């Protein structure tokens, strides 16, 4: 039970949603965009967040799109994870989101919610990073299209009131050879120890990781180490560690163990693709 | 644009009946089912989406009703355990001894019922993925798995 | 009717959503309570500010500890229901808000502000018994609720049990091999799927109606009576179906808070339903254990001496921990025949959440230590771990650590269990550990025993009435939380009355005002304790039925027999009379009625149990010992130290299985919990603050794709004093599985694995440390 009241709006037009947000804001209200709502509800219940207006975006066609047009895959921010898995339009993404929470919750969590939520792992972003996804965002000034690395750098670069509309992915990249593995402490339904996603595109290996640092990342520096002709995992693993931009997560599992697991996963990636 | 504010009256399509009830927009579907409609088969095992004891079907797909606002369910078809009438899953759970204390049972039943509707030929992997959404603390899941398999045409 | 597979009595209610648990009931005008919990593991509460909380619309009352200056406890009265001046664990109840709606109660509880002054924390039982440890209690000031508890003055020790058998020094002198090991096993939680809930209303005459999710409705009545000075009969406890207990709901906890809440609002009905997070951090949990074990073995492989120190981490209050420490002491050698035993078992205060009974009652903890030591001894002496267990396993004519002589009635046949296990798992020297490339497949075994550790005066009862169509109604005080007691008891009665169990109705809900007292629904004891009462009630009814039938059939009573709801003449079965014509009196054609209603009554109590002698531990703690042997087979990956559980096996001497399908399922459930303890379950503390407070972070066993095969087989050596020979079995599946797991992993990884839980990281750490 959520211990406070709020109003609920469910617009069908994307501009209505954005305008409503700014209107409520101007009235000194605290609106939130609402996709699957799984995290909003659970955090509200324990008093971690408070708001007085909810704008549910699931009725907005653009946010609910899941299609392929002109060799580009479009996935709306309000598409539930299980639909991404069942459609299999982007196999790496399908496999990645299939390991977020559990199947029933996947019927509720949306891709946008996974990426914009408070939980640090945000595994849904990994395939999008690898596939150079384009991200469209709306605010009062109109629609903006960003490259994925502009949209996400340690955290989503999205300001209050901006609405994440959809992701668009080049089908060629989505169809590249790929690898995904989520390692957990013990229980399958758990946050990751380490999740890696990788694709091989034009002979180069692209790699994105969640669970190692406080945020999911893709690192050009690490990819250049791995893609070097002379690369040897045992010898060069320290270079990879040194190239990390932040401290390795220590809670729940030690940093050393996470690195141990990372190395095993890198070995598997190099073997598989 | 749909808009709900304060205490509102809504119509919910539950178990093939239209139920008129007053709700507040901040109430979860679980809360409304249990406290406003007397449908207590869905259980508040964690209210955090972790245990699955509150699972109901929304348009035939399993949803943890603790993680859904009741207003989100307006206009959709809700099926709770109370709406099952001699469903194969119920019989299978009884025959296979697929429960002990019974507290998780409604949730597991709804997952199995949905599985039989959506994937009548589900393989072991899919059965596992769907059942992993729920926790049973009494059994070792063997009997629940056997019940699930017995209602699928494999 | 015995040894047949029939469904649970309440099966269809449970698959239709009709089964009702305490939290499912709504009462007109009911109010809602919410708890404010301590934010510190150990602190003085300097002040509490309730202004903001009271300002929330709908709040009616807020109660703090100073308003109820009573201490409670079923063994030692050490715990205030609401912290008074001082909180001793993170999550201890400090205040209760009562409001006219749930939202207001929760919102207000979040607005309570308290000022604390932190005190030093005691983080483990080993630290707690150090001479300079901060004292959490003045135990010597506390009133004892039972006389066989031994708090140690000036120490953090709520009881100390001593076992002295034989001559320990002589034993070690005879030993060719000595193995010593220490263990620190963490606390964990019951995680029953139903969180604790109680609804309390106080009537105008001061009498009390309580509905609660409890394994111990009669303890609720007794304790409330003592704490609040209310006549027992004026307290009516109603327990509907319970959503899992595992011992956790045997403690009286939420009922006291619900009473306080109702009292503060002039007796109006108040519901207190714990949120999962509160159920985890605030309500009593499972013990932790620090142990030191030393075993001596002679050249031939016979155990000569066992010396053990067990420190039960009871957390901030002792609840039933002194009895757990005692239960560990009485069986603390493991199921082995050892002449020389020296054991100190203590329950010790720390600033962890307080603990209560948990499936296994301490046996699931100490057995891990003993079974690891047995495997270490086998390794040291290059013996087969199976042969070593078989050689030393306790047998008839041996004596327990508390010097009870064992016979084939009061103990299961462990040797037979071990031998059956050996053949099921195909235990051979050449296949215990098999290497396949990077994978190692390994087997580990364990043996266990457990007595029931009941109070010597525990009682049960049964009342049997009949319907005008001849069907029977059985009323007992046993709570149903999944252990199928109602079904088992119907079978026991059906067998005795030679009638169809489907024609026997058993009360599912327990109401203390009309069910005969049943001590507690714990200790896997129901089939014995309540079963004997049911048999007595059946005897009583049979006698009455025959007496009346002898009038109707005009024959001596001894010529009569009963089957299928008919009383008939043995040598002339066509002369019979149906129950329907007897149970409400014998009806004559002219309208006369003779005999009134037939009501069977049966009482039963434990007998011949004794308290333990304080200096030696000598005494009889239970009426029987259940025995069993277990195996776990794993596939271990040398490269990443992860492992997969392939198989888990239990062979248990059940005496007689009443309902094999259900009984095996119950044992498998225990094994599944043990795999949880073995692989993932524990409370993670940071400075005594529980960190994994939800099922998101406190992980229990889920369905797995490549789930292990669960195998359960029964040996059946009847217990002659128990209904149809049945023995206690419901909790036992949990006892030795995690020990077998650690033994398998130790064999596979080639290092000594003495910690829990065991995930890939835990083993990796041990391997790194070994390097």
- Secondary-structure content class of chain B: alpha+beta
Helix content range of chain B: 25-40%
Q: Say what oligomer this is.
A: heterotrimer
Mean pLDDT across all residues of chain C, rounded? 97
Overall, the morphology of chain C is globular
Distance between the termini of chain B: 45 Å
Task: List the domain count of chain C as a whole number.
Answer: 3
Q: Beta fraction of the residues of chain C?
A: 25-35%
* DSSP helix fraction of chain C: 10-25%
Q: Might you state the CATH topology name of the largest domain in chain C?
A: Aldehyde Oxidoreductase, domain 4
> What does the overall shape of chain B look like?
elongated
**Second CATH tier, the architecture of the largest domain in chain C:** 2-Layer Sandwich
Number of domains of chain B: 2
Structural features, described:
The complex is a heterotrimer of chains A (about 270), B (about 150) and C (about 775). Chain A is an alpha+beta fold and about 270 residues long. Among the domains of chain A are: about 5-55, Uridine Diphospho-n-acetylenolpyruvylglucosamine Reductase, domain 2 (2-Layer Sandwich), CATH 3.30.43; about 175-270, CO dehydrogenase flavoprotein, C-terminal domain (Enolase-like, domain 1, 2-Layer Sandwich), CATH 3.30.390.50. Chain A has twelve helices and 14 strands. Chain B has two domains: about 10-80, Ubiquitin-like (UB roll); about 85-150, DNA polymerase, domain 1 (Orthogonal Bundle). Helices cover about 30% and strands about 20% of the residues of chain B. Chain B contains five helices and six strands. Chain B has helices at about 30-35, 90-95, 105-120, 125-130, 140-150; strands at about 1-5, 10-15, 15-25, 55-60, 60-65, 75-80. Chain B has a five-stranded mixed beta sheet, sandwiched between helices. The radius of gyration of chain B is 16 Å and the shape is elongated. The mean pLDDT of chain B is about 95. Chain C has about 775 residues and is α+β, with helices and mostly antiparallel strands. Chain C has three domains: about 25-120 and about 195-275, Aldehyde Oxidoreductase, domain 3 (Alpha-Beta Complex); about 290-455 and about 610-770, Aldehyde Oxidoreductase, domain 4 (2-Layer Sandwich), CATH 3.30.365.10; about 460-605, Aldehyde oxidase/xanthine dehydrogenase, molybdopterin binding domain (Aldehyde Oxidoreductase, domain 4), CATH 3.30.365.10. In chain C, about 25% of the residues lie in helices and about 25% in strands. Chain C is built from 17 helices and 32 strands. The interface of A and C includes residues 2, 3 and 260 of A.
């Amino acid at each position: 039970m959520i211990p406070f009241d709020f109003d609920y709006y469910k617009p069908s037009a994307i501009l209505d949603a954005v305008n409503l947000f700014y209107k409520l804001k101007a009235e000194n209200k605290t609106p939130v965009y609402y996709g699957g709502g799984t995290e909003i509800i659970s955090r509200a219940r324990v008093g971690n967040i408070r708001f007085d207006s909810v704008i549910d975006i699931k009725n907005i066609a653009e946010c609910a799109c899941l299609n392929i047009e002109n060799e580009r895959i479009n996935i709306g921010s309000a598409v539930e994870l299980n639909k991404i898995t069942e459609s299999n339009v982007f196999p790496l993404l399908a496999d990645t989101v299939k390991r977020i929470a559990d199947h029933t919750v996947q019927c509720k969590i949306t891709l946008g919610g996974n990426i914009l939520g408070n939980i640090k792992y945000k595994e849904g972003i990994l395939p999008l990073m690898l596939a150079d996804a384009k991200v469209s965002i709306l605010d009062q000034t109109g629609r903006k299209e960003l490259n994925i690395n502009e949209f996400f750098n340690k955290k989503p670069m999205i300001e209050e009131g901006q609405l994440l509309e959809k992701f668009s992915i080049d089908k060629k990249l989505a169809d590249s050879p790929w690898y995904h593995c989520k390692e957990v402490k013990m229980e399958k339904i758990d946050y990751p120890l380490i999740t890696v996603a990788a694709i091989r595109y034009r002979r180069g290996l692209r790699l994105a990781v969640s669970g190692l640092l406080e945020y999911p990342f893709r690192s050009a520096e690490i990819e250049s180490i791995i893609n070097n002709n002379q690369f040897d995992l045992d010898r060069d693993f320290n270079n990879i560690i040194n190239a990390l931009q932040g401290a390795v997560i220590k809670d729940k599992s030690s940093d050393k163990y996470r690195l141990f697991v990372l190395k095993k996963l890198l070995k598997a990636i190099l073997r598989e693709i | 644009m749909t808009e709900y504010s304060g205490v509102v009256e809504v119509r919910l399509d539950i178990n093939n009946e239209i139920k008129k009830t007053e709700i507040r927009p901040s109430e979860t579907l679980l809360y409304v089912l249990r406290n406003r409609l007397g449908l207590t088969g869905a259980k508040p095992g964690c209210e955090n989406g972790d245990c699955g004891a509150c699972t109901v079907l929304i348009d035939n797909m399993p949803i943890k009703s603790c993680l859904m606002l009741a207003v989100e369910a307006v206009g959709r078809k809700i099926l709770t355990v109370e709406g099952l009438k001699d469903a194969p899953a119920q019989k299978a759970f009884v025959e296979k001894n697929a429960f002990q204390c019974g507290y998780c049972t409604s949730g597991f039943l709804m997952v199995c019922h949905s599985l039989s509707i959506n994937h009548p030929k589900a393989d072991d992997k899919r059965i596992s993925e769907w059942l992993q959404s729920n926790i049973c603390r009494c059994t070792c899941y063997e009997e629940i798995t056997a019940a699930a398999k017995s209602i699928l045409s494999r | 009717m015995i040894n047949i597979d029939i469904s649970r009595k309440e099966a269809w209610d449970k698959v239709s959503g009709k089964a009702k648990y305490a939290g499912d009931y709504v009462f007109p005008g009911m109010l809602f309570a919410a708890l404010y919990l301590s934010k510190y593991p150990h602190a003085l509460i300097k002040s509490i500010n309730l202004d903001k909380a009271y300002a929330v619309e709908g709040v009616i009352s807020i109660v703090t500890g100073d308003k109820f200056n009573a201490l409670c406890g079923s063994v030692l009265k050490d715990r205030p229901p609401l912290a008074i001046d001082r909180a001793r664990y993170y999550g201890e109840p400090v205040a209760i808000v009562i409001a006219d709606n749930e939202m207001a109660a929760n919102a207000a509880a979040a607005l309570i502000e308290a000022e604390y002054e932190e005190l030093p924390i005691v983080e483990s039982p080993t630290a707690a018994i150090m001479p300079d440890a901060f004292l959490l209690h003045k135990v010597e000031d506390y009133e004892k609720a039972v006389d066989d508890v031994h708090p140690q003055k000036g120490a953090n020790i709520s009881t100390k049990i001593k076992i002295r058998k034989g001559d320990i020094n002589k034993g070690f002198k005879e030993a060719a091999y000595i193995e010593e090991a220490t263990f620190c096993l963490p606390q964990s939680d019951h995680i029953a799927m139903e969180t604790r809930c109680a609804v309390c209303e106080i009537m105008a005459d001061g009498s009390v109606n309580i509905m609660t999710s409890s394994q111990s409705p009669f303890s609720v009545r007794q304790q409330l009576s003592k704490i609040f000075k209310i006549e027992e009969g004026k307290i009516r406890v109603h327990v509907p179906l319970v959503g899992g207990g595992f011992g956790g709901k045997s403690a009286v906890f939420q009922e006291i808070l619900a009473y306080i809440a109702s009292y503060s609002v002039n007796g109006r009905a108040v519901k207190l339903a714990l949120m999962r997070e509160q159920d985890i951090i605030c309500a009593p949990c499972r013990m932790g254990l620090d142990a030191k074990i030393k075993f001596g073995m002679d050249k031939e492989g016979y155990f000569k001496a066992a010396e053990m120190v067990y420190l039960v981490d009871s957390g901030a209050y002792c609840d039933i921990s002194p009895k757990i420490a005692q239960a560990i002491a009485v069986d603390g050698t493991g199921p082995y025949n050892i002449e020389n035993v020296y054991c100190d078992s203590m329950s010790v205060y720390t600033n962890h959440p307080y603990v209560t009974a948990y499936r296994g009652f301490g046996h699931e903890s100490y057995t891990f230590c003993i079974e690891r030591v047995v495997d270490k001894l086998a390794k040291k002496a290059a013996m087969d771990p199976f042969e070593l267990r078989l050689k030393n396993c306790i047998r008839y004519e041996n004596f327990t650590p508390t010097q009870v002589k064992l016979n084939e009635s009061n103990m299961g046949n462990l040797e037979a269990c071990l031998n059956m296990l050996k053949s099921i798992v195909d235990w051979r020297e050449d296949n215990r550990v098999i290497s396949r490339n990077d994978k190692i497949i390994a087997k580990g075994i364990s043996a266990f025993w457990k007595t029931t550790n009941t109070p010597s005066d525990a009682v049960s009862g049964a009342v049997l009435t009949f319907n005008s169509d001849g069907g029977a109604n059985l009323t007992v005080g046993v709570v149903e939380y999944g252990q199928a007691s109602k079904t088992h008891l119907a079978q026991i009665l059906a067998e005795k009355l030679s009638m169809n169990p489907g024609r026997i109705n058993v009360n599912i809900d327990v109401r203390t005002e009309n069910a005969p007292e049943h001590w507690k629904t714990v200790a896997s004891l129901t089939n014995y304790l309540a079963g004997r009462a049911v048999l007595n009630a059946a005897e009583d009814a049979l006698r009455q039925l025959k007496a009346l039938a002898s009038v109707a059939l005009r024959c001596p009573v001894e010529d009569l027999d009963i089957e299928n709801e008919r009383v008939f003449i043995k040598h002339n079965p066509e002369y019979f009379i149906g129950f329907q014509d007897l149970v409400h009196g014998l009806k004559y054609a002219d309208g006369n009625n003779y005999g009134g209603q037939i009501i069977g009554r049966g009482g039963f109590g434990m007998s011949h149990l004794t308290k333990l002698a304080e200096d030696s531990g000598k005494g009889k703690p239970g009426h029987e010992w259940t025995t069993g042997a277990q195996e776990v087979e794993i596939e271990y990956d040398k490269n990443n130290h992860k492992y997969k559980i392939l198989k888990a096996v239990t062979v248990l001497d059940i005496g007689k299985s009443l309902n094999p399908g259900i009984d095996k399922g119950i044992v498998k459930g225990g094994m599944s919990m043990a795999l949880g303890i073995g692989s993932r379950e524990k409370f993670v503390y940071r400075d005594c603050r529980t960190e994994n407070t939800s099922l998101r972070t406190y992980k229990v066993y889920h369905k797995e794709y490549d789930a292990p095969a669960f195998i359960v087989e029964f040996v059946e050596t009847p217990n002659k004093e128990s209904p149809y020979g049945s023995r206690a079995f419901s909790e036992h599946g949990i006892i030795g599985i995690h020990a077998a797991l650690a033994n398998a992993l130790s064999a596979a990884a080639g290092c000594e694995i003495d910690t829990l839980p065991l995930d890939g990281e835990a083993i990796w750490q041990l391997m790194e440390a070994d390097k």
